[in-house]
Write a structure and sequence with these properties.
Layout (H helix, E strand, L loop, with lengths): L3 H11 L1 H9 L10 E4 L7 E4 L2 E2 L1 H11 L6 E7 L4 E6 H17 L7 E5 L4 H13 L2 E4 L6 H11 L3 E5 L1 E4 L2 E4 L1 H10 L6 E5 L13 E3 H6 L9 E2 L3 E7 L7 E6 L1 H13 L8 E4 L6 H14 L2 E5 L11 H8 L4 E4 L1 H10 L16 E4 L6 H11 L3 E3 L11 E2 L16 E2 L5 E4 L12 E6 L14 H9 L5 E10 L5 E6 L3 E4 L2 E4 H9 L4 E11 L3 E10 L7 H15 L8 E4 L13 H8 L14 H12 L8
Parallel strand pairs: 4-17, 6-7, 6-8, 8-11, 11-12, 16-17, 16-18, 18-19, 19-20, 30-31
Antiparallel strand pairs: 1-2, 3-13, 4-5, 9-10, 14-15, 21-22, 23-24, 24-25, 25-26, 27-28, 29-30
Helix pairs in contact: 1-2, 3-4, 3-5, 3-10, 4-5, 6-7, 9-10, 12-13
Bound molecules: coenzyme A (COA) and adenosine monophosphate.
Amino acid sequence: MSNKYDEAYKRSIADPNGFWGEAAADCHWYEKWDRVLDDSNPPFYRWFKGGVINSCYNALDHHIENGLGDQNALIYDSPVTDTIKSYTYSELRDETALFAGALADQGVRKGDRVLIYMPMIPQAAIAMLACARLGAVHSVVFGGFAANELATRINDAKPKVIVSASCGIEVAKVIAYKPLLDEAIDLAASKPDKCVIFQRPMKTATMIAGRDIDWGDATAAAQPADCVPVAATDPLYILYTSGTTGQPKGVVRDNGGHVVALKWTMKNIYNVDRGDVYWAASDVGWVVGHSYIVYGPLFRGCTTVLFEGKPVGTPDAGVFWRVISQHKVKCMFTAPTAFRAIKREDPDARLMADYDLSNFKTLFLAGERTDPDTLQWAEKSLKVPVIDHWWQTETGWAIAANCMGLHHFEVKPGSPTKAAPGWNLQVVDESSNPVPAGQIGALVVKLPLPPGTLPTLWNNDDRFIESYMSEFPGFYKTADAGFIDENGYVFVMSRTDDIINVAGHRLSTGAMEEVLADHPDVAECAVLGVEDSLKGQVPVGFLVLNAGTSREQSEIIGEVIQMVRGRIGPVASFKKATVVKRLPKTRSGKILRGTIQKIADNQDYKVPATIDDPTILGEMEQALTGIGLAKARK
Ligand code: COA
Ligand code: AMP
């Protein structure tokens, strides 16, 4: 029997113009679009061409005009500073308009880029919305990246202004942001005109005269700015994500399709609406933070929670339950790793008993596959549906989900359920031919992608085509492999490139190899993601040293660990490396990564027929045992 999901899915594929046109009618437009889908220049599809819109207006002003001015728009909950502060829609609009005025005073205009390097404080969301208000393009950079990564992004986006804060707080550690920012600007070829710095009392920053402006001074002198109408197809933001090299990809999101799609997902995927409290425990530096801490909940008129803390240690493994209960959260979104951290500290979920969770209806998990253990533990403890859903920075919202606002399907552990409406998801072989149900292949999406996804990469149409559109003509390559079973359930098994997922953070092992290869004593190297019971995967480096190196191996290992931390950032969690005499390779010289991985993860492996010298595998086992991996192997 057909259900609301089946109907919505079929219609979204058969009649995307009708489906998304209807969803768009729910948003505020200054001028209606000429065409819902412009498919005249594939693979550069455009949604709502001719439409004129403002994302900040849709997030704030529109709701105030519709009676939500006094409802909370954002609750800042920061156990690390012992602060809880709420902003109504009117208050958030006023602060945003004022900061937009301050940015305009620094010369920011429609189309200019503004880079935001901030911890999880309300000013981060205010800065993003202020850019949207002016039609400027924001590029938020996650705080756990090093100065070098920040510099790469500054060079690519060429921001006119950078907005930052004096420090962030990681559990009990105060992390000074400003010295990292200063170093990044020194390293970058492209310099911003100005930096606006939010001074936090835990550590104030030294300002550079003529370039740096205090947030408080900038807003004190400013007048509130109005929303600037922009084309639906104009960019709202750039978000850099790991590619297969050290050069990250600048994923672009446009305004119109993004408002329409995210507003639709709030009701249809997450089953929340105007007035409901929604909490995504992530960071504004990631796509989850963009879509579901800031824009999605505000487009829908929900109250969003902005949480500055960790699942454990701030102060304990009960903090998620405290936040859910205190703010009456209806739906929460986080990464499975957060639940693994809680489960490790409080295996019987005893801390949950202290809180009233009666308003809580659904937990959504993403960022990595939800392992069945974590799923079952969360279901058993919370007694609400626990929904795995699969998406990527590029897609901006879920490719596959159990769409709770449409139909609640039975959960199959290990599966993010079915392709979401708008996504013509298929599994194909190397020649782009469909494979039978249940068989593993490349997960690809038949074009066009739905609204709210990436129209291109910043200033790099060629890389957009090369990365996503060329291997399987007519399809978007997700770079994930998996299968779809005979009932339409999707199973995402692994990446097909060198990307690994560390505590829900997406990282490129290729980028880490580039860093290791720069060490003067390293002749050759490989970095692999090995299984980790908390973070899902962690990177491990294998180093072959130059002949004749007489230095202590432990010293070299310490140095490469520091180099990755210094060049990529602490977020890489690169803490393990080992020296090996040689790397196992095929006769044609390709490193046998899959085999090393299996050894590290303690899985059975076959000696590959193509290996040039099978005795190396014994050496690899020894090296891995030496760093605490592969230990159970006989
Ligand atoms: N600014 C500066 N440094 C940061 C940072 C930030 N915003 N975020 C993380 N770091 C640092 C951490 O302090 C840590 O440094 P250390 O090596 O000196 O200890 C390092 O980067 C790794 O951080 P993290 O991956 O968060 O590991 P952790 O051990 O501190 O915590 C978890 C582990 C599981 C509790 C944590 O990763 C978590 O809460 N994850 C939630 C998942 C999530 O938000 N995913 C995003 C996508 S939904
Ligand atoms: P990011 O761009 O950081 O969101 O990372 C996207 C990648 O994370 C995807 O391509 C997948 O490899 C992985 N991923 C995210 N969510 C899931 C999920 N629910 N199941 C399996 N893999 C996931």
